[in-house]
Design a protein that fits this description.
Length: 373
């Protein structure tokens, strides 16, 4: 295996997608969000996120002849290099990282993949966003993306896409509420629901920021997986989001949604859809060769169009003091009784449904054969 001397370490050559790139051996096969260091960063567990990025851009119906794509916090450059290599024209890709060592490694990886003329820079991302306009901006930072959001919203034109990653899950999911309020002006509580409420807080914060600039953001896909949140927003003309941002709460398994100014519960949260159903359907076909990713995206597709939050089977059955029946049978019975129902990406034991709490519990008991018939 070929090695090159880099600023701080010996790099190793790996393959991801259709590209080869040099990365630090410290970053290969690691799990979790990683630590912020001066070393050019590569996280192998985020491959799915990058696979998804390529698929999203391929499926994106944009109105610009030559879309300009910015990978703003590029690390090794893998995302931008994959976009250019696997999709090619008509995209114009810009790759940036403010870390000087990362920039040198990006240049090396561009040359290795036969892309020496691709635009790359070693600048502060906010300065780039203030001075240029793009069709697609990707923000994948350590921790929270909020300090880049305002300038990204201003930079991306109507019809464009802003893709963000957040790894500050402790804050968003209510474990660290002081950090949550400081970054997102919101409140959450840690429980079985907190992954979804954390996602909805991140979306609501982004949507409210966009309204300042007479724009709106519509979630195309919203991912919570491994150690991160990942959202692809379509930028559209401003519209009222009166019934799409509010508060929600969970009390003894009962879900309450507040669409008005009653600031009770967790929030502000996004109360609209997390995924665009037709867009989700268009990308699933790209993952048929990976059973785990394909199953995940199918579950995402199935829950699109469902109401906010879900019932947790472990919690419900514990409260009812009954054995937990098979989840698929519960879903089938809910549908048989005229309710919509699906699994969810937020919990292995979660069921989304438009059934009210009483009806849901009765059907669970029916399936469990312990009471209601």
């Amino acid at each position: 295996m070929e090695n090159i001397e880099c600023i701080r370490d010996v790099m190793i050559l790996i393959k991801e997608g259709l590209v080869e790139l040099y990365v630090s051996p410290h970053n290969v096969n690691k799990t979790g969000p990683g630590k912020k260091t001066d070393e050019p960063f590569y996280n192998s567990i985020m491959k799915f996120s990058r696979d998804l990025t390529v698929s999203v851009i391929k499926s994106w119906k944009n109105s610009v002849r030559t879309p300009q794509i910015l990978d703003g916090l590029a690390g090794t450059g893998v995302r931008g290099i994959r976009i250019m290599t696997e999709l090619g024209m008509p995209y114009e890709v810009y790759i940036n990282d403010h870390n000087p060592d990362a920039y040198k490694l990006i240049r090396k990886n561009l040359e290795h993949n036969g892309l020496p003329t691709i635009n790359s820079s070693n600048l502060d991302l906010n300065k780039i966003l203030l001075n240029s306009n793009y069709s697609y901006v990707d923000i994948d930072p350590f921790g929270s993306p909020v300090k880049f959001m305002d300038n990204a919203i201003r930079s991306v034109h109507i019809g464009g896409i802003i893709a963000i990653t957040a790894t500050d899950t402790a804050a968003l999911e209510g474990v660290a509420n002081r950090a949550l309020f400081r970054r997102y002006w919101a409140y959450n509580s840690n429980g079985y629901w907190s992954k979804e409420t954390g996602m909805r807080i991140l979306i609501a914060n982004s949507v409210m920021r966009a309204s300042v600039y007479d724009k709106s953001l519509l979630p195309l896909l919203s991912i919570r997986r491994d150690h991160y949140f990942r959202i692809f927003f379509k930028v559209v003309k401003y519209h009222e989001w009166k019934n799409e941002v509010g508060y929600m709460s969970v009390d003894d398994g009962n879900i309450t949604i507040n669409y008005d100014n009653d600031r009770t519960g967790y929030g502000p949260v996004w109360l609209g859809q997390l995924h665009d159903r037709s867009f989700a359907e268009s990308i699933i076909k790209d993952f048929t060769n990976n059973k785990i990713d394909y199953k995940f995206l199918n579950r995402l597709y199935e829950e699109s169009g469902m109401p906010p939050l879900f019932y947790d089977m472990v919690y419900v059955c514990r409260r009812l003091k009954i054995p937990q029946p098979p989840i698929e049978k519960v879903i089938d019975h809910l549908k048989h009784h005229g309710f919509r129902a699906s699994r969810t990406i937020f919990s292995k034991t979660g069921v989304k449904s438009d059934a009210d709490s009483s009806s849901f519990k009765n059907i669970v008991m029916e399936v469990s054969n312990t009471g209601v018939t």
